[in-house]
Amino acid sequence: MIKHLAIGIAIAAAAGLTGCGSTGETVGTVGGAAVGGAVGSAATGGSTVGTVGGAAAGGIIGHELGERYEERRRR
Fold first, then answer.
1. What is the C-alpha separation between 24 and 47, in angstroms, rounded?
2. Which residues, at least 6 apart from 67, have a Cβ–Cβ distance to it below 8 Å?
């Protein structure tokens, strides 16, 4: 049940950020952190370390992907 709630919150956060006028880096970072935290929590059975680690990794990956998106968009 907790896993489904965490995943639902992550999806809602990512969907809400999609409509923002923010840069790709910001949307990628926050969206990646939300999804990474949910995945980390689900993968480790709700462990705090897994949630925080997943959020950190997701944020870094999301930022990089957002940065690349912005670079392509500027061309």
1. 30
2. 24, 25, 28
Question: What global pTM score does this model have?
Answer: 0.69
> Using an 8 Å Cβ cutoff, are 34 and 10 in contact?
yes
Per-residue pLDDT averaged across 46-63, rounded? 91
Burial of 54 (C-beta count, 10 Å sphere; 0-12/13-18/19+) = buried
Q: How far apart are CA 11 and CA 5, in angstroms?
A: 10
Q: Which domain holds residue 65?
A: 2-74
- pLDDT at position 2, please? 67
Tens-digit pLDDT profile for residues 18-35: 555 567 788 888 889 989
Q: Are 10 and 35 in contact (CB under 8 A)?
A: yes
Q: How many domains does the chain have?
A: 1
